[in-house]
Every structure is written in C-alpha cells, then in structure tokens.
Amino acid sequence: MSDYGAQVAASTVTVSLAGALGGIHMYAMAGALVGSFFFLSLPSTVKGIKAFFLWIASIGAGYFTGYTVSLFGYEVVAAISAFGGGAFGATILTALQKYFDGGPMPDFLTRIFDRIPFLQSKRSNGDV
Which pTM does this prediction carry? Predict the structure, then answer.
C-alpha cells in the first residue's frame, strides 16, 4: 500500500489557498493549483514533509508565473502559463530534491553545465 499522507494534506490545503489567493488573482491561482496537481500525480519519490513543501513551492512557481503574465492583461493566458509554471516547477524541484538527497545529477543540469564554458573546467569526471 502507498502512503498518501502528503497528497491528503495537499488536497485539504488547496481549498484554503484557493479561497485566500483566488480572490486576488483568480486566473493565476486557478492555473497554479491545477498545475500543482501534476506534482501530486507523479510517482511519490519524495516522502513526508518534503513532499508537502515541494507542492507548496509548485503552487508558488505557478502563481508567480501566472501573475507576471496577468500584469499584461491576458487573464486566460495567465491561467495557462500558471498551469505550465506549476507543472514545470514541480518537475524541476523534485529533480533537484532528489539530487540534494544524494541521487544523480539531473540531466538538465548536466546539459546546462556542459554549455557554460567557465563551468566546464571546474567539473571533474566524478561530477557527471
């Protein structure tokens, strides 16, 4: 059986966040919440309180992405970009959390480090 404690906690907080921030920027918040469910649907490789904080960070990434777009007056585009920001933020943050817990370096970081000339000379073969 799987442990769904973090998902249950996340779903109960969703209603509070939607009520508190939804009145401020409704489209950005709605897109961020829907995008954060992408994180909840991923196989749970991060457990406990870390998963809860990653979910909150996913909502934050989506909300600020949507808020930035809504400043230009495009509310529907703000909702779509908030969805993308929440989903993309969850993926990036989960990969980084696994790396900090002793896992392998994520592929996207390896590709970034390979493209920056001054970082290539500082990396050793053991970092790959």
Answer: 0.65
Alpha-helical (H) ranges within 23-74 are 26-41, 49-70
Does 79 reside within a domain?
yes
Instruction: Assess if residue 28 is contained within a domain.
Output: yes
Residue 126 forms part of a structural domain: no
DSSP at 46: S
Q: How far apart are CA 60 and CA 67, in angstroms?
A: 10
Give me the phi and psi of 63, to 5 degrees please: -65, -45
Establish if 124 belongs to a structural domain: no
Burial category of 98 from C-beta neighbours within 10 Å (exposed 0-12, middle 13-18, buried 19 and up): middle
64-107 per-position pLDDT tens digit: 888 889 888 888 888 899 888 888 887 788 888 778 878 787 78
Number of structural domains found in the chain: 1
Angle at 112 between CA 107 and CA 118, to 5 degrees: 135
